[in-house]
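S.,

Sequence below, as promised.
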Amino acid sequence: MIPYSTQDINEADIRAVGQALRSGWLTQGPSIIRFEKALAKRVGARFAVAFNSGTAALHAAYFAAGVKKGDEVIVPSLTFAATANAALYLGAKPVFADSDLAHGNMSIANARARITKKTKVIVPVDYGGRPADLREFRALAKKHKLVFIEDAAQALGATYRGKPVGAHADMTMFSFHPVKSITTGEGGVIVTNDQKYDKALRLFRSHGISKDTNTFVRKGHGVWYQEMQELGFNYRMPEMSAALGESQLKRLNSFITKRRAAAKRYRRLLAKVPNLILPPVERPHEKSAWHLYPVRLAPGIADKRDTVFAQMREAGIGVQVHHVPVHRHPFYEALGCKKGLCPNTEAFVASEISIPLFPNITRKQQQFIADTLKRILARI
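The prediction came back faster than expected:
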């Protein structure tokens, strides 16, 4: 089975993890510090705070933004559930905005219409690795005094208006799940230029406990003393994961170059296939990380999506669908979300199939995938 995506681990990665294991540090050691500094430098941010998952990183970012019970957080429905769930963890309400049917990113117009007096944070997602309209979202957040958090779980290595993704929002989250641009096994990070956010993130990831004497409420204790100042969590990334991430980061440019080449190859192979809608070409001011290559069936045959999906799987091609609209999950329906809340998102997902894309996919594999998809569509 050709997977829809997979990690690329080499001997340098294995050596890096081995060195971490032999270092005497398994947690809270030098590998974390090096990885955070390297990542912050790579994306042009002052600070990077690593976590044991992208979900944990989002939870921490919402906390740092001051999200509390009764607040609203605007998120797209076309995303992984964690983008919305992290608001619920803090007692806030995720408010779902619709997507642009062409590329899947959150609609700026629909997001604007969702803003109320309770809105605290706005969180566009870079769907498939393609940057959202970050300049417009920043302006919208500034106008309404919202915290702008970018969910760039799929977009490490992408650029927007000449700067890396990670240099545009108040806080940006990257994920290091095995299918992402680089991997730490599991893991995530928040990058920011704001020292206040940096301190809050670090406090939150380690039980809300501070060891910084400058922050202590009670002074005059010995070096053993520490204070729990917030209700935090144990969201720390292990040293081995950080060592793997630092090693992988050295190959990020190579990974993205290979993904971009594969995406261009798909466009050539599938350009003239009837009833198949390809991802739109990149605009001049953006470069996608190409985490996904999402194709869609034309409206006239969209109801055959599951048939096409099943036949691709039967042929040994590990296609996937990204994502179940969050507002259509049973959990969110039980909270009152209804079908039709985000019609573009629903239409997009109902016709979408993610075909395999990863750095080391071969020309032969892509040709087989394209030929198989053409043959299946020709029979419908």
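The first strand starts at residue 47 and ends at 51.

Coffee later?
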